[in-house]
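User: Predict the complex with iron/sulfur cluster.
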Amino acid sequence: MEKHILSKSTFIKGMQCNKALYYHKHNRELRDELSATQEAIFAQGTSVGELAQELYPGGVDCSPESYYDFQAAVIKTQEEIEKGTTVIYEAAFQYNGVLAVLDILVKHKDGWRAYEVKSSTSVSEIYELDATIQYYTITNSGINLKDISIVHINNKYVKKGSIDVNKLFTIESVKERVLQLLPSIPNQVNHLKNILQQPEAPTRDIGPHCNSPYPCDFIGHCWKHVPAYSIFNIARLNAAKKFELYENNILHLKDIPEAFPLNDNQWMQVQSEVRNETFINKETIHTFIQDLNYPIYHLDFETFTSAVPIFDNSRPYQQLVFQYSLHIESKDGKVEHKEFLAETNGIDPRIHFIKSLIANCGNKGDILVYNISFERSKLFDLIEFSPKHKVPILKIINRLKDLMIPFRERWYYTPKMQGSYSIKKVLPALFPELTYQNLTIQDGGTASNTFANMLQGNFKGDIEQTKKDLLAYCALDTLAMVKILEKLKEIYK
Ligand code: SF4
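Assistant: Here is the predicted structure with iron/sulfur cluster placed in the model:
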């Protein structure tokens, strides 16, 4: 059997962008490096796929021994079907140069049904297209499919004891939509095969398709003519307007025509950059500062998620708290630091987190967070988890105030913030010497993945050192808040 030309995933890639497909086959060296977060997403997808096999237990796995030998998997799948096997995992089919590897193929009483597993929580348009190329390949290989479904995570499922796969997963038939999309598939397959035979990559400029439906692997290459700070960084400007500017050869903020429709904050961002000017609304900052009650508790949470819930009384993808940092600032300027980091011994971190937080938050003074909706929603989750702690947690919620407001509302804006009010941009803009770049863990996504890996026993590094790195990262978040507030107070002085 000849090697396939397209696989299900390269077909999807080609439908997103012909050039991405061409590069993927002929210019792999141009590909971006995978981020730790992307690697964690892929690993999660694999473990969800394996768990979904338990929906139809006792099947035969037709995965190839080597990643490059899918044709052996196609032959093995055919042999299993001929033998009368009724449940096949990683069932491989090839037709017209297209390879499709299906997660689970089951022969029910009324015929064959195909199941494609996704670790997301709903069916999207791209999954329907994905199922269509599977259906095209499988049915043209001689299997009459009674139905084809997407198996996805049910985010309402609450774990109680062992995982109940029948409740964790939702099986949603997409056959109706597949039959609507099917007539266009042969032309699309031929078109993409032709693209791959061309001597050079197709010309396709950057556009909204670079991130939709998936972030492309070649952004680093195709976007290298776009400056690090450009019209694509204008806050809350929709993609259509950004690309309207781009198509008019406008990349720098200084080149935006005055008549271009931007809102007041967007114009402020542009003016600030063009004139290298800082905007400060002293009056509103003054009111904000005057309204604060000491001692001020600067608080920040870290959370992790998992597609398959690890602890009882938690849902798929629920953000579970595992760490906090607290800088307590008294009126005379003294600052004390407290922190919590959960153990990675398999014990649910939430009860220890709650007890530690209640003990360290005292009972008076404001609790300042950066983006109140995040910490508030996690605290409400903790009430749901432990109703007996409702009263003290509600007291904490009632003391919360948001340090992000002066920056989100542009009461304080410097060109170095580059349109962002994230603490990761605000801190170095105000204090260049205080940067996350000297830390081993530099962002919340890495902190979250690192902790989840340690918890699940998948972490390969030095656990004790990594715990110190996690503490250092979270501590900088709340130290940053102390410094930022100091800066706001200076303005008022
Ligand atoms: S970055 Fe955009 S233009 Fe370049 S290959 Fe990817 S999708 Fe196509």
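The first helix runs from residue 8 to 16.
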